[in-house]
Write a structure and sequence with these properties.
It contains nine helices and eleven strands. By secondary structure, the protein is α+β, with helices and mostly antiparallel strands. Strands 5-8-9-10-11 form a five-stranded mixed beta sheet. The chain has a two-stranded antiparallel ribbon with strand order 1-2. Strand 6 (205-207) and strand 7 form a beta hairpin. Helix 5 packs across helix 6 (141-168) and helix 8 packs across helix 9. Its EC number is 3.1.-.-. It comes from Trichuris muris (Mouse whipworm).
């Protein structure tokens, strides 16, 4: 981390302050200029660079229109160090109960979804584009958009049925209220419900205190007598392997790593991905610490690529 005084303005080592390319030790930060107030209030971007920064950020936004985009945020200062960050931070508990002055900056961290979207391989992008074009050709743009919207609604309804109706309100399995289109997916999930014992947290925003990214978890719950992080999915095709889930394991391990950097959550060493279908029993993938460590290395590589590419675009 940098820790110096540039032009009489102190660099705290947690928020980046770079006023010239020559003073910056990381190519990631070239040509970024903004100020950070020591009282912890929201960082103010330099008035001279703000128009270009806002324009660039808007051009980058490809995954979520509702997510605030800002280049003038806290960033990892050293790309090489990203891939050395452990899955479980040993000193995370030391921050418990502390007065975090960087709360505002956390809302400007890039999301896991955005990072994965922008670091997809060319092959993956081509497959997605071809699938999308084929669907539009088959159904038309309006029908395709409707299908995507309906699938999102089904996923939301299924998540609510599990975490709110079943686990929180303790509604009997056969009395859970769902739309007709979501019922088959609930039926797919039913055989696994005896293994799901208690809800710990749901739909919580998490952020990594060192790697500076954020995301929103599906749920943290007790599964087979241990606390696990859940990612709940729906699919028209049966998923037989983790490879068939594309970036879902990376998304899950990114959230788990963020939780492991936050002192108010239990350390996560187990996670599950449940995929529900319309006409067969749900598939559950159980990821123990070895799987999570394996995917964590892949996630760190994608994260490093994201920052490197972003830095190149701002040179």
């Amino acid at each position: 981390m940098l820790n110096a005084t540039f032009g009489g303005v102190h660099h705290c080592g947690r928020c980046v302050q770079v006023f010239s390319k020559s003073l910056c030790r990381s190519s990631l930060l070239f040509n970024w200029s903004f100020r950070h107030r020591s009282n912890g209030r929201k960082a103010k971007r330099s008035a001279q660079t703000e128009p270009d920064v806002v324009k660039s950020a808007a051009e980058f936004s490809a995954t979520s229109k509702s997510e605030p985009v800002s280049i003038g945020s806290c960033y990892p200062c050293d790309l090489a160090s990203i891939q050395t960050v452990p899955f479980v931070l040993d000193n995370a508990d030391e921050k418990k109960g502390s007065n975090d002055q960087e709360t505002g900056a956390k809302f400007r961290f890039p999301s896991v979804t955005k990072i994965l979207e922008r670091t997809r391989s060319a092959e993956s992008r081509e497959l997605f584009t071809n699938w999308r074009n084929n669907m539009i050709e088959k159904y038309g743009q309006e029908k395709f958009d409707s299908l995507v919207s309906d699938r999102l609604k089904i996923g939301t309804a299924l998540h609510e049925a599990l975490t709110m109706q079943y686990l929180t309100l303790q509604t009997p399995v056969d009395e859970v209220q769902l739309s007709e289109s979501a019922v088959p997916y609930w039926n797919s999930l039913k055989p696994l419900l005896p293994c799901i014992e208690e809800l710990v947290s749901k739909e919580a925003w998490v952020n990594h205190s060192v790697l500076h990214y954020k995301g929103r978890i599906d749920a943290l719950l007790k599964y087979k007598n241990r606390v696990v992080l859940l990612e709940l999915k729906t699919s028209d095709r049966v998923k037989a392997s983790l490879d068939s889930l594309y970036d879902t394991p990376l998304q899950l391990v990114a959230y788990a790593g963020a939780l492991n950097s936050m002192p108010d959550y239990p350390k996560i060493t187990d996670a599950i991905i449940i995929v529900c279908y319309t006409s067969s029993e749900a598939t559950v993938f159980e990821l123990n610490i070895r799987y999570l460590e394996y995917y964590w290395k892949q996630w760190l590589q994608r994260l490093s690529n994201y920052w490197a590419d972003l830095g190149k675009m701002h040179r």
